[in-house]
Structures are given as C-alpha cells and as structure tokens.
Amino acid sequence: MARQVRAKKHLGQHFLNDESIAMDIVKGLTSHRNYDKVLEIGPGMGVLTKYLLDNKQYETNVIDIDTESITYLNKTFPQLEGKIISGDFLKMNLEERLGENYAIIGNFPYNISSQIFFKVLDDRAKVPEIVCMLQKEVAERLASPPGNKSYGILSVLLQAYYKIEYLFTVEPEKFNPPPKVRSGVIRLKRNDVASLDCDEKLFRRVVKQGFQNRRKTLRNSLKPLNLPEEVQEMELLNKRAEQLSVNDFVGLSQDITKWSK
Ligand code: SAH
C-alpha cells in the first residue's frame, strides 16, 4: 500500500475518515442531465474516488494540487491512469479533457470554496450538477432563501442557475485532522435555462454592488452604478439586497437596461 499523505494545512487538507459518509456524498450525484464524466476536485487520498470508480455510468477524473496526493493516487488507483490531473483547479483550463457536459464533486478545500464556485459559474453551461462538502456555514449560505441573514452574493448568483439542496451535516471528528468547523454537503442541479432573461453581466454587477452594504437600502448601496432616475424611484429600491429573490434581481436588471436607453 502507498504511504499515507501528510495533511498540509495550507492546502486545506482534512481527510474524511468515514466510509459511509464518503459513500453518501458520492450517492448525492443523480446523473442530472446525463453527464458521462465527473471531475473530483481535491481527491486527497481518494476516499470519495474509490466509490466514484464503482460507478460505470460516468468516467471519473480527478484534480489535486498536492504532488504527494498525486503520487498516492497513481499508486493506489491504477485504473485512473490518464485521468489524474496534477495542478490548481482555479488555474486549469479543463475543457479539452472534460468536454461539454460533466459533473463536479469534492470535499472542497474550504479556504478556496468561494473561488471554486466563481469558476464553476463561468463554466455553468458545461456543469449540470455539483455535489460538494464545504464549511457548514457556507453550505447553508449558498442554499439559503432570500430574507435570510446568510443569503449573499454567491447564493443569488448560484441560485440563478442552480437549484441548491442542503443534504447533510458532517461533524469535525469524521476528519483527519479535524477541522475547527462543522461541514455541510450540498447538491446543485442546473435549471433548464443556462442563461437569464437579462443582461447577465449587469445582473452580476447589481448583485455584487447590492450586497456591498447589506444594511443599506438598494437605493443607497447601488449609488455607485448611477442608475437612471426612473429606476431610482422604484419601490423595490427601498428594500435591501438580502430581501430580493433571483427574479427580483433579474427584473431590476431588465429595468436598468430599459431606462438606460
Ligand atoms: N477528498 C479528500 C481530501 C479533501 S481535503 C477527502 O475527503 O479526504 C482537500 C483536497 O483539496 C486536498 O487533497 C488538497 O490537496 C486539495 N486542494 C487544495 N487546493 C486545491 C486546488 N487549488 N486545486 C486542486 N486541489 C486542491
């Protein structure tokens, strides 16, 4: 057997040590929209990978930034030959390898989970389903409905394209070494529409700006965008960003476009 990988803190390495939880995470994949490839981000020592390999419906690919993990995976999973990518997911262009339709799974390195999601958002047309473990607080935030304190930028941007379900919580002692926080597993299934009924760049800008100052009304927080007078007068701008649904933000973006002409 290959030598165990030493857990490196700066890479967010906390190895899951519970097989039934690993199985449940992998079972979270539902083949939503029939992908034939799966990319696992941060396989570490492959606790999820081995269950992914049991499933013949899809081809498993993995990417890890840690060369020690890569060596371990190469030794332990000969059947993964050619499917193990050594590198930083955030910097990698994976199009050639993965094609146009693949799912993402992983016990994400918690320190970069938001960055992972911003990258996934850019690639959303190719990624119909994601199952992942995150810091519980972040998992809840992403799945949170409007009106909730934890509802934020990534909740809106991701919910615009994905239906997000909170699946279950995992306690720190299920990892080696245990993280300081509890963990949560979520599933994201992409909606029918891969694009919104508005200027999507503007939508992103409005959402980001709106949440810059959560306590302020949108009329105030959106000041830097110099919205047309007609929009500034709208009732909706008395609300705060956290009170708006995805559809409210889409509607607002449409109105901004309409009155900017
Ligand atoms: N899936 C394993 C390991 C989770 S720890 C388990 O559940 O036990 C997170 C993993 O992500 C580590 O293996 C770490 O090396 C890897 N990782 C950290 N930053 C990364 C990055 N930028 N790109 C790819 N992998 C990364």
Can you tell me about this structure?
The longest helix has 15 residues, at 246-260. Helix 8 (200-210) crosses helix 11 (246-260). Helix content is 34%, strand content 18%. It is elongated and about 70 Å long. The protein is built from eleven helices and nine strands. It has 261 residues and is α/β, with parallel strands linked by helices. It has helices at residues 19-27, 49-54, 67-76, 95-98, 113-122, 136-143, 153-159, 200-210, 218-221, 229-232, 246-260; strands at 15-16, 37-41, 59-64, 84-86, 102-107, 129-135, 162-170, 175-176, 183-190. S-adenosyl-L-homocysteine binds next to strand 1 and strand 3.
Strand order of the largest sheet: 4-3-2-5-6-9-7
**Unreliable parts:** none
Instruction: Please provide the ordered H/E string of secondary-structure elements.
Output: EHEHEHEHEHEHHEEEHHHH
The major sheet is characterized as: 7 strands, mixed
The counted number of beta strands is 9
Structural class label: alpha/beta
Number of helices in the DSSP assignment: 11
End-to-end CA span: 67 Å
Average residue-wise pLDDT: 96
User: What would the principal axes of the Cα set say about the shape?
Assistant: elongated
Helix content: 25-40%
